[in-house]
Design goal:
With 137 residues, the chain is α/β, with parallel strands linked by helices. Among the domains are: 51 residues, no CATH class; 33 residues, no CATH class. The chain contains three helices and five strands. It is globular and about 50 Å long.
């Protein structure tokens, strides 16, 4: 199961995701740590406070460096999903500043996590997130 942001999922469907089906993995691309979703994903790609989905209206910078407003992508969700599924699955070469995420490293991680992977509950995790307060020293 894949979701961009579980806070945007219909409450009835979200409740159905609380119980794990055998072999099911719930992936959430952007998890909000200031407003955690009612169901916790098994895997998330980004821990965010605020994010704008690529298909929503947003600010953009044009070729001249001017800030503009880009309209929402009006295509149906099914078309967007087909485009995402058609994207290359080849690993990113990285930026050279961080270690590469090789297939070997992923396999090593998966082997270590296999015994407990996707066995816990999907209860809502109420967390203060990575920032414990609004005060910085």
């Amino acid at each position: 199961m894949v979701a961009y942001d579980l806070n945007e999922v219909d409450g009835e469907l979200l409740s159905a995701l609380h119980e794990r089906a055998p072999g099911e993995v719930l992936y959430e691309h952007a998890t909000c740590w200031t407003d955690t979703p009612g169901v916790s994903a098994d895997v998330c790609g980004l821990l965010v406070q605020r994010i704008v989905a690529p298909w929503e209206p947003r600010m953009a910078v044009d070729e001249d460096g001017e800030v503009t407003h880009a309209p929402a992508d009006g295509r149906p969700a099914e078309e967007l999903a087909r485009e995402i599924l058609a994207a290359s699955a080849e690993p990113d070469d990285g930026d050279g500043a961080t270690p590469p995420d090789s297939e070997e490293e992923l396999a090593r991680f998966a082997a270590r996590a296999a015994a407990t992977w996707a066995t816990g509950t999907r209860d809502r995790i109420r967390s203060s997130g990575p920032v414990r307060s609004s005060r910085f020293a």
